[in-house]
Design a protein that fits this description.
- It is a single chain.
- With 268 residues, the chain is α/β, with parallel strands linked by helices.
- It has a single domain, classed as 3-Layer(aba) Sandwich (Rossmann fold).
- It is 41% helix and 22% strand.
- The longest helix is centred in the last third of the chain and has 18 residues.
- The radius of gyration is 19 Å and the shape is globular.
- The structure holds S-adenosylmethionine (SAM).
- S-adenosylmethionine (SAM) binds next to α1 and α3.
Length: 268
């Protein structure tokens, strides 16, 4: 998959993302948010606003959202059906996190489908900034490296390994953490006295999502081929078999994600 995200990819994944997200983290977030009115929310790597569309109806108080992304074409597509919701978009690179974060006070930092793209250094800056402001953190749909097919293909492990190694390339914010991002963020936040909860938010994909299935397999083939060019034709053949399997209903694929909620221990 290219380092720039296409709006059609984000549109295809949005219904699956919304279905997959963990509801069990919400009661803790609600308790923490009580009395914060409006709740100031910073959404990092917001894309077309999928995170806002999922989370805002689940929160009970007035909200003031700031959506940050470096891609103006994605930000131009941000829409919400919630009347009266306050929100604004900022076109900025997440590498300049500390610069703009200072100008936009927030109670909650959130992101969806972003965490696996960032580096350890970036994560440390995030942890530090949240600690200083005693802000809550909710990071959803963090890819965890598990791709499980309901029927086996001999090339699944090779493709999976190449894809996961490709995940750790530099995606613009330093060497990406890829599948280890949730665990590393949890460690960083616990070290500064946050309470952290992680819940699964996996995709379960089959023939009812043909567009997403095709784009996902194509993306895996492209990533694996870039990582291991000597096997490009094997990866292409694998992709054709796996598209057929998914689209015919012969197979399903489970793509592991995790949702993370972290709350500061304000009593300490
Ligand atoms: C996988 S998309 C997720 C978008 C959205 N949060 C969602 O759930 O649909 C990752 C987003 O992060 C943005 N992004 C990636 N690297 C960035 C950077 N260095 N600065 C700002 N935005 C970035 C991309 O433009 C893209 O919108």
């Amino acid at each position: 998959m290219s380092d720039r995200f296409q709006s059609d990819w984000l549109a295809l994944r949005e219904p699956l993302d919304h279905f997959a997200r963990s509801r069990s983290l919400l009661p803790r977030l609600h308790d923490w948010c009580a009395g914060r009115d409006p709740l100031r929310i910073l959404d990092l790597g917001a894309g077309t606003g999928s995170n806002l569309r999922w989370l805002s109806p689940h929160l009970k108080q007035r909200q003031d959202w700031t959506l940050v992304d470096h891609d103006p074409a994605l930000l131009a597509l941000v829409r919400t059906k919630i009347p009266g919701l306050q929100w604004r978009c900022i076109q900025a690179d997440l590498g300049a996190w500390d610069h703009y974060a200072d100008q936009h006070p927030y109670d909650l930092v959130t992101a969806s489908a972003l965490l696996d793209l960032v580096s350890k250094t970036w994560l440390d800056t995030l942890v530090d900034a949240c600690r200083l402001r005693a802000a809550a953190v909710m990071m959803a749909l963090n890819y965890d490296g598990h791709i499980e097919w309901s029927t086996p293909d001999p090339w699944d492990p090779t493709v999976g390994e190449a894809v996961n190694t490709h995940q750790t390339r530099n995606k613009g914010l330093g060497a990406a953490l890829g599948p280890s991002a949730s665990a590393q963020l949890a460690d960083g936040l616990r070290a500064v006295n946050y309470f952290v909860w992680i819940e699964p938010s996996a995709w379960d994909i089959g023939c009812e999502s043909p567009g997403l299935a095709r784009m996902l397999v194509d993306g895996w083939v492209a990533a694996a081929s870039e990582q291991d060019p000597a096997h490009e034709s094997d990866f292409r053949a694998w992709g054709e078999r796996r598209c057929r399997d998914l689209l015919s209903g012969h197979s399903r694929v489970r793509v592991g994600h995790q949702d993370l909620l972290a709350l500061p221990d304000t009593a300490r």
